Amino acid sequence: MSEQDKNVKLSDNERLKRESNFLRGTIEQDLKDEITGGFTADNFQLIRFHGMYQQDDRDIRGERAKQKLEPLHNVMLRARMPGGIIKPEQWLAIDKFADEKTSYGSIRLTTRQTFQFHGVLKPNIKGMHQMLNSVGIDSIATAGDVNRNVLCTTNPVESELHQEAYEWAAKISEHLLPKTKAYAEIWLNGEKAETTEEPILGSNYLPRKFKTTVTIPPNNEVDVHANDLNFVAIAEAGKLVGFNVLVGGGLAMTHGDTATYPRKADDFGFITLEDTLKIAEHVVSVQRDWGNRSNRKNAKTKYTLDRVGSDVFKAEVEARSGVKFAPSRPFEFTHRGDRIGWVEGIDGKHHLTLFIQSGRILDYPDKPLKTGCRKIAEVHQGDMRMTANQNLIIAGVPADQKAVIEEIARNHGLIDDKDTEQRKNSMACVALPTCPLAMAEAERYLPSLVEKTEALLAKHGIPDDSIIMRVVGCPNGCGRAMLAEAGLVGKGPGKYNVYLGGNLEGTRIPKLYLENVGEDVYLDAFDKLIGQWASERNDGECFGDFVIRKGIVAEVKVSVTDFHA
Ligand code: SRM
Ligand code: SF4
Q1: Mutation test residue for ligand 1: of 478, 489, 563, the one with most atoms within 8 Å of CB
Q2: Per the count of CB atoms within 10 A, which of 75, 317, 423, 483 is most buried?
Q3: 357 lies in a domain?
């Protein structure tokens, strides 16, 4: 059944993983090489398994080439933070490092509840890992063909349930981590220890990246349908009793390749808590053995399910784990946005969600966000939580600390009463200048797109309404545009494909509406559509539901047949 068994030509990534001596490669030698700022040959890929990507600033690439200089190589680091929880003392350490040792000086919150540093030069890489280790953070397996950072619904309103769900996220993350000691050896000067096997991931690791969540309905902040494996919390009388398991979501595609598509996850059924790790392990092991290792564009779990059949995949997970899925328990998602502002948890503690546009924490001239976060971390005694919408929660604030925290947040632009619902419901991926795969702007373009959309909503008399709008610089879809009500997907400089028809709950994939168009064309289209929506919608009907009901785009029910039809 496995692709290897079929005598097909494996992708080169399979060779490099096999030859890497359990992810060590020759990274240590490369680190000593002062001639280039980059990593060579296989090491370029292998550092990803240690949570880093080699990048360069694309804004200055051309200029450096003219001067016959190599691109200014640096790395982006992505930390492993299951459930996005970070302690104030950890925050202070990463804040300092971002200031002193990164070229951009920012902390970038991601769509998967962690942070990235951009622009770390080679001489600072080892020190960075040692600094992170000293405060209990690592970056193992946040990239590469492994199980990535495990997400968990962030807002601790239902505190008890959240704590249990978070503990499962942390346990799943640990259970599925690579067992190789390569990370400690290379970055932390750990003792050399021979690795002889990777019992869960296999010596060739997974065919492709793998993404897992633990989710507490009705909040679908983590966007389960973007993930390979989801544990949807089922509670009775406020106590977690088990999970419904959803398998095979994923959003990436390649322009012009109809064999690639975004796909929702399938509901395999209910399991009790004691079976959680067994199921996690065996969904991974089936994908490890059955995933496509010759074509990386068709390697993710979503394609394995469509190739072998969801029932066949599920039966194999049952056979390997010895666990039979029970019928799914009822659950419902109602929303995905973060509740910006204060909420009180059932334990009487207060939680403040700060809206951070595109997750970029930096001191802007009019909004010193980074200083504000640092000042909060200096006085805060609870923890801080990074949300899957790139926002930050100051969690566990006692009533008598609320005023102090709020004052710092307001004074540093972290609370801005002028932020509209449209702004809070818009998201962008990083894209230019750091992402090597970006075809168009995303994060840098978002503020102006939001302003123009706000103007259209106001023009049609609905300034307080909003559309879940997401912009991504390429069809990999890191800002989850393929679950937006209106998603812009970069095609070339200033050009986007426009997809419409996602819903508020995040349970519908949008469909192509305009192809390869510039701002004048899609703003004109939005003007007409928002006008129609304002005057012809049913009570409470969101934009995505409206465009489907009106037949403006067809509904994507089954991706493999409907998405490109
Ligand atoms: Fe992503 C690659 C940024 C979430 C699908 N993603 C990249 C890289 C590393 C580019 C590269 O390979 O060199 C981007 C780095 C940009 C930069 O300069 O920082 C990048 N992805 C991001 C982040 C930072 C976007 C953000 O604005 O927050 C998110 C980091 C998540 C994390 O902390 O782990 C991020 N990426 C996602 C998501 C959304 C999600 O998981 O919820 C997706 C779509 C869901 C999915 O996987 O289907 C996503 N990223 C991709 C893909 C396409 C994978 C595929 O299935 O084909 C790539 C390219 C690849 O892997 O070949 C990619
Ligand atoms: Fe880069 Fe594309 Fe991901 Fe945006 S969607 S961060 S452009 S890979």
Answers
A1: 478
A2: 483
A3: yes
Can you give the pTM of this predicted structure? 0.97
Question: Which letter does DSSP use for residue 553 in this model?
Answer: S
Cα 479 to middle of ligand 2, angstroms: 8
Q: Which of 302, 319, 336 is the last residue of a domain?
A: 336
Segment 101-113, tens digit of pLDDT: 999 999 999 999 9
Would residue 43 count as lying in a domain? no
- Say whether both 332 and 245 belong to one domain: yes
What is the maximum alpha-carbon separation in the chain? 68
Q: What is the pLDDT of residue 1?
A: 43
Q: Is residue 55 part of a domain?
A: no
In the prediction, which pLDDT does 322 show?
98
pLDDT of residue 390: 98
| 475 and 363 belong to one structural domain | no
Query: SS3 for 251-318, per residue?
Result: CCCECCECCCCCECCEEEEEEEHHHHHHHHHHHHHHHHHHCCCCCHHHCCHHHHHHHHCHHHHHHHHH
**Residue 557 among the catalytic residues:** no
List pLDDT tens digits, range 154-163.
988 887 899 9
Q: Which atom of ligand 2 is nearest to the CA of 477?
A: 5
Q: How far is the CA of 436 from the centre of ligand 2 (A)?
A: 8
Say if ligand 1 is within 6 A of residue 76 CB.
Answer: yes
Integer Cα distance of 412 and 409 in angstroms = 5
Check residue 483 and give its pLDDT.
Answer: 98
Assess if residue 18 is contained within a domain. Answer: no
Ligand 1 nearest-atom number relative to CA 151? 42
- Ligand 2: distance of its center to the CA of 109 in Å? 14
pLDDT at residue 8, as a whole number? 81
Domain limit, last residue, from 361, 386, 417? 417
Q: Which amino acid is at 181?
A: K
pLDDT at 185: 96
C-alpha distances in Å from residue 77, one per residue of 145, 288, 473, 557: 16, 26, 20, 37
Residue among 152, 373, 478, 542 flagged as catalytic: 478
Query: Residue 104: CB within 6 Å of ligand 1?
Result: no
Tell me which residues of the chain have a pLDDT lower than 50: 1, 3
Tell me, yes or no, if 78 is annotated catalytic: yes
The ligand minimizing its distance to the Cα of 112 is 1
Domain of residue 391: give its range.
341-417
Among 108, 375, 424, 435, the active-site one is 435
**What SS3 class is residue 142?**
coil
Q: For residue 228, give the CATH number of its domain.
A: 3.30.413.10
Query: For residue 376, how far is the Cα from the chain centroid?
Result: 25
191 and 254 housed in the same domain: yes
For the chain, how many structural domains are there in total?
Answer: 3
